[in-house]
Amino acid sequence: MDILYKIFIDPFMQMGQAPDLLVQTLWEGLVAGVLYSLIALGFVLIFKASGVFNFAQGIMVVFAALTLVGLYALLGRWGLPAGHLTAFIALGLTIGVMFALAVAVERLILRPLVNQPDIILFMATFGLTYLLIGMGQIVFGGESKVMIAEELYLPRGAIDFKLAGGFVSLQKIDIAAAIIASVMVATLAIFFQRTRIGRALRAVADSHMAALSVGISLEQIWVVVWFAAGIVALTTGIMWGARSEVSFALEIIALKALPVLILGGFTSIPGAIVGGLIIGIGEKLGEFYWGPLLGSGIESWLAYVIALLFLLYRPQGLFGERIIERI
Amino acid sequence: MRLKHLLLGTALAVAAAMPASAQEGIYIPLLTYRTGAFAVSGAPIGSGMADYLNMLNERDGGIGGAKLIVEECETGYDTKKGVECYEQVKSKNPVVINPYSTGITLQIIPKAGVDKIPILSMAYGLSASADGNNFPWIFNPPATYWDGASMFVKYIGEKEGGLDKLKGKKVGLVYLDAPFGKEPIPLLESLAKDYGFELKLYPVTASEAQNQSSLWLNVRRDRPDWIYMQGFGAMNPTAVKEAIKINYPMDHFVGVWWAGGDDDARPAGPGAKGYLALSFNQTGTNFPVIQDILKYVVDKGKSQLPKDKVGETFYNRGVLNSIIIAEAIRNAQKITGKKVINGEDLRRGLETLTITAARLKELGAEGFAAPMAVSCQDHNGHNAAFMAQWDGTKWVKASDWIAPLKDKVNPLIDSASKEYVGANAGWPKRTEPCDKSS
Fold first, then answer.
1. CB neighbours of residue B9 within 10 Å
2. Distance (Å, whole) CA B22 – CA B27
3. Average pLDDT in the A265-285 region?
4. pLDDT of res. B419
C-alpha cells in the first residue's frame, strides 16, 4: 500500500504543497523540450530529404560551437578587439563554415552515393561523425571552451519571483534559449511547409527518382537541407554551450532527440516540436516526482519509456505518416 | 647485390618494428582522453603527464641514462577502448600502465599480475587495491576516494564545530553514475551511521552530464546542508552552474579532486566564487619543475596544450603523476642496478617509493604536493590533501593539509579487499617478496 501511495498520491500532494517547485519543474521541462525539438528538427530535415538518419547531427553541434568560439579567439589573435562586433563576425564566418560543410557533404558523400541503399548513406554519416571529431580535435583541441554568450548579447542572471511561499527562478539564458529556439523552429517549419523549396523537399522525401523526373535538383535540396541542419546545430551549440560549456560532451545531448523522433515520427516537423515538449516536460516531472522512488537518475531512460508508451497506440509516431502498402 | 640490399632492407624494417623496450629506452604508455565528454579533464592531465616525461628526455636525456619512450593511446574515457589500448601496448613491454579511468582500472586489475605490468591509478580506481598483500601489482597513491570522502566529512565536521555536530545534518552526494562516481558511497554510508548524518544520493548519468536541472531541483527540495561531488568531465561545470541557479551556498559545495579543475569552475562566472574542491597538488607555474617544462617542452612547441593552461590544477596533477612514475623508475634502477628496467622492476620501485619534502625540493617541486610514501602492505599511503577554493579567477589553498580518517578508512579497505578476493575465485596469493623502502 505504501508503494502505491508513493506512486499515485504523494507526488500529487507534493505538487499541491509546493506549487513553486511544480512551476519550476515545468519551466525546466519546457526549456529542455524546446531545445530537444530544435535538435530533433535537424534530424527530421535530413531524414525527409534523403531518408537517412544523420548520425553526425550530434557532432555537428559540437563542431559548430567549437568553430564559433575558435574563430572568435582567432580573430582576437589577429588583432580584432574582443567584443560584440568580433563575436558577430565570428558568427557570420561560422555560418559560412556550416554552408561549406553542407556543400562538401553533398559533393563528397551524398552525390557519389545517389541511389545507393539507405544503410550505405547511414554508414557514411558515421564516417562523417568520426571525421568531424578528428578535425575538431586537430583544429580546436580537446579542452573545453567557454561560449561567447555575452558577446552575442545573450543575457546572464535570473528573474526570480515569489510563488506560494516559495520562489521560481527563470534564468535569462533559458528564456532566451526558449524564445530563439521557438522562433527558429517556427521559421524552419514555415519555410519547409510553405515555400517552393519546402514542396521540393517533400517531393524528394517521397521519391528521389520521381523528384528528379520533374526537374527538382537533388543536389540543391541536399545542400539547403544540410545547411539548415548546420544552422540548427549551431543554434543548439550556442544555447547549450551557454548553459553549460562547449566541449565534445555536447555530442551526447543530440542523442536526446532519439526518443523525440520515436515519439514524433521521423518525417514530421510538428511531431519534432510536440514530441520535444512532451519528452522535455515528461522527463523532468518524472525525474523530480517519481525519480527518488527508483534511486533517481531515471531521466536518461524515462524519455524512451514515454516514447514507447505513445508508440503502443501510434506505431508510426505521433505525427508520422501512416504507411500503407499494397500487398 | 640485389639480395644483399633486400636482406639489409628487411633487417632495417625489422629493427624499426621492434618493440620499444628492445631499444635502449623505457617504454611508458599513457592512456589519455583528449576527445569525448571527459576531454575537459583528460586533455590537461594527459599533457601534464607527457610534458614532464618529455622534459626529462630533453633536459636529462631520460632517467639514469635510459631514454623514456612516451606513447599515448586515446581511450575517450571509454572502458572498452581503454582495455583495447592496454592489449595494444602490453606487447611492447611497458613498465607501467596509467589507465586514467576507474572503469578501465577495474577491468585490467586482474590482468596486471598475469602480464607482470604494474598499474598506477593515482588517487582513483579501486580503493581496496591499496592493500598491497592482495593487490601487489596495483598502486593508487597518494589517497583513495575513501580517504577523500573522509577528508570532506572531517572538514565539514570542523566547520560545524565538531564531528558530533553532524548528527541530524543532511549531506548530499552528487556523483557520476559509473564505477568512479559510486566509489565513495560505502565510506559515506559508514560515516553517516557513525556520526548520525543523513546521506542523500544524487546520481548523474553520463548522458545527462550537461542536463542536470531536475537533479538540482531535487537538491533544492531536499536542502542538504553540505554537498560532496564525485564528478568528472563536463558534469562538473554543469553542476556548478546548476548549484548557482538554485542559490546553493557555494562554500558548502565540495568537489572531489577530479572536480576541482579550472574549467570546472571558470565557465560559471563570478557565481562560482567560493566553490570548494579537494586537491593534493598546487597550481601555478611558480615551481622550478614547471619552469623547466615550459623551457624544454612548451616553448619549443612540443606540448599539445596551449601555454596558458600550463600550471592549472589538472595539468599540474598530470605532472605529479609523472613525478611518481619517474621517481619509481629511479628507485627501481637503484634496487636492480639496471639501466633499462621492466615492469617487474618498476613494481619493486613503486612498492618502496618514498618522496620526502627534501626530494620534492630537489625535483624543483617544493610544496607542490605533500610528501608521500608507499609500502609493501600499503600501496596508497593515505596521504593528506587540502581544500582549494575558487576565488572567481583561480584556485587558492583554503585549508591546511587534511589527513584522512584512517581509523575509518583502513578497516573498510581490509574488508573490501577480502571481499574482492573472495568474489574472484582463484585470486592468486601474493608470492612477490617485499623490498626495503627507499
1. 10
2. 9
3. 87
4. 93
Torsion, CA B210, CA B189, CA A291, CA B156, rounded to 10: -50
- What gap in Å lies between CA A325 and CA A304, rounded to an integer? 28
Mean pLDDT of chain A: 86
Binary contact (A245, B267; C-beta < 8 A) = yes
Share of chain A above pLDDT 90, in %: 23
Helix (H) or strand (E) holding A150: none
In B, which residues are within 8 Å of A248 by CB distance?
35-37, 39
The stretch B122-144 carries a mean pLDDT of 94
Residue B156: closest CA among B232, B249, B231: B249
pLDDT, mean over chain B: 91
Cite the beta strand spans of B250-385 per DSSP E.
Answer: 253-255, 276-279, 354-355, 372-373
B234/A247 touch (CB, cutoff 8 Å), yes or no: yes
Copy the grid coordinates of residue A9.
498520491
Inter-axis angle of helices A19-50 and A269-285, nearest 10: 150
Q: Residue B208: its chain A contacts at CB < 8 A?
A: 297, 299-300
- How many helices and strands (H and E) does chain B possess? 15, 13
User: Which residues in B lie closer than 8 A to residue A25 (C-beta atoms)?
Assistant: 214, 217
Chain B residues with beta carbon closer than 8 angstroms to that of A240: 210
Find the residue in A nearest to B309 (Cα): A143
Mutation for A interface: B185, B200, B211, most A CBs within 10 A: B211
Does residue A157 belong to the interface with chain B, where contact is any CB pair within 8 Å?
Answer: no
- Interface contact B309, partner A, CB < 8 A: yes
- Closest-CA residue to A37 (of A254, A209, A210, A294): A254
Whether the pLDDT of residue A188 is over 50: the answer is: yes
Which residues of chain B from 151 to 190 reach within 8 Å of chain A, CB to CB? 177
Distance of alpha carbon A47 from alpha carbon A35, whole angstroms: 19
Using the Cβ of B205 and the Cβ atoms of chain A, whether some distance falls under 8 Å is answered with: yes
- Name beta bridge partners: A145: A246
Chain A positions in Cβ-Cβ contact with residue B262 (cut-off 8 Å): none
Assigned CATH topology for domain B145-273: Rossmann fold (3.40.50)
Provide, as residue numbers in chain A, all residues whose Cβ is less than 8 Å from the Cβ of B306: 141, 143
pLDDT for A50 beyond 80? no
- Give the count of Cβ contacts less than 8 A between chain A and B: 132
Could you give all domains of chain A from N- to C-terminal order, each with its CATH number? 2-313 (1.10.3470)
* pLDDT classification of B1: cutoffs 50, 70, 90: very low
The torsion region of residue A83 among left (phi > 0), alpha (psi -120 to 50) and beta comes to left
Closest-CA residue of A relative to B213 is: A28
pLDDT tens digits, one per residue of A245-259: 787 877 877 788 888
Smallest CA-to-CA distance from A217 within A49, A77, A92 is with A49
pLDDT digits (tens, 9 = 90+) for B379-434: 999 999 999 999 999 999 999 999 999 999 999 999 999 999 999 988 999 898 88
pLDDT at res. B123: 93
Question: What is the complex's ipTM, to 2 decimals?
Answer: 0.81
Report cis status (omega within 30 of 0) of the bond before B411. Answer: no
State the average pLDDT over residues B98-110.
93
The domain limits of chain B are 23-144+283-386+414-423, 145-273
The class (CATH top level) of B23-144+283-386+414-423 is alpha beta
Residue A182 contacts B where some CB pair is shorter than 8 Å: no
Q: Based on C-alpha coordinates, what's the Rg of chain A?
A: 21
Q: Chain B within 8 Å of A116 (Cβ-Cβ)?
A: no
Radius of gyration of chain B, Cα coordinates, nearest whole angstrom: 22
Nearest by CB: B213 against A28, A137, A249: A28
- Pairing outcome for strands B372-373 and B354-355: antiparallel
